[in-house]
Amino acid sequence: MPEPPALLVFYGGRGDSDAERTVDDARLAAALDAVEAAREGGVERTILVTDQPDLTSDLPGLEVDFSNAPFHFGRRLAAVARRRQLDSVIYAGAGSVPLFAADDFREVASRLAGGVIVTNNSFSSDLIAFPANERALAVVGRVERDNALARAFDESGLPVEELPRTVATQMDIDSPSDLRILALTGEGGPRLRKHIVGLAPGTALYERTLPLFTNRASQIVVAGRVGSHSWAYLERETACRVRLFAEERGMVADGRAEAGSARSLLGFFLEAVGLERFFEALSELGDAAFIDTRVLLAHKRIAASREDRFLSDLGEADAISEPFLRDFTRSALSATIPVLLGGHSLMSGGLMALNEHAWALGEQEA
To answer: Domain 6-163: which topology?
Structure first.
């Protein structure tokens, strides 16, 4: 019998600002919840890989692998697997799949034992399970970002199997908007729920969108990195009409954002008509809008700081230092419809979580 896979959770790059620390603390809480869920699902060995020298945990048996050397994702992951002589690995970024339960980890391990590499998203992997043999580790060592790993395996001729697209497999803690959605829905493990309970007062704008998902007369605008599976989910599971602008999926994994080659139809429209008309048009197109601001920033070749992106998601426009993002956020806040700003996770797991919460509330009221 092969040994159960080891769970390797990466947690690093902690920010200095309040907005960043809120997200990073939540990611750590979710990582520890994931460790407990994985153990309940039969994963015996769990390792937290970090660049934080003072990181401690109250979880017995959790190994901490610390290094402050210059970071390269693939080389670090491959080195840990080799040094600790692991037979197979379930990799997850801290904050990835915060809704995973024991059965989810058990399913991943079962599929991995069947001889395939398993991921939550073939185009942008946050979780991926693979055999730690030299062929696989050679691929791992070349990859700079975790979201490119599943595609690298596929391009190397290794079989990759994607998990079903559900809220649990697609929800990711990537920004404050994700935390507010989780605070609104009340989902997540015990450590995460305890950490984000204080964010509940900031969910009013998100609450305004809930009745739209279950109303056939309503329409929402969704603009950003939306995959075909998310589009199919929205068409199948919502009652409202969905006006979708799917752009630049995989721009980070492919390097288009960093290279400055990402382009957005909404970005061209915004440049042509200006902020005032842009948001007027949004209100004519839908009753609420969900916008992936990272696509617009990439289109305009603006390297906004992580802090500024998070402040935009929080609606704290006056604190944003980048001029375009500050003005865009102000305009979004003053729009006549709810405009929710975020990143990739808002476009997938976030929308799915809001929709399912809306239907659950309707069933409770019936």
So the answer is: Spore Coat Polysaccharide Biosynthesis Protein SpsA; Chain A (3.90.550)
